[in-house]
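Sharing a chain and its predicted structure for anyone who wants a worked example. Both blocks are below, sequence first, tokens second.
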Amino acid sequence: MRLGGVKGCVVHEKEEFQSVLEAALADKENAIVAITEKLFNLMPDYIMERKLRESLPLIVKIPDRHGRKETSEDMMRYISEAMGIKF
């Protein structure tokens, strides 16, 4: 994703994730925040509440490198729909 100009941060622990997520959501330059399924599952209630309360940035759950845990659209379709880009 970096090759496409997408900035990112790698986190593994809940506390670190919460801190990075808050910073990403507070940054007015961000229109989309993509979160892997694994990280989403660390704080699902908070993320869903935030998605319902705020319209921007758009929070998108994407599959991680270990594969999907549920049946959903693939990562490229999420990105293309969210950004309006055709691959």
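Comments welcome. Helices lie at 14-26, 37-40, 44-53, 75-83.
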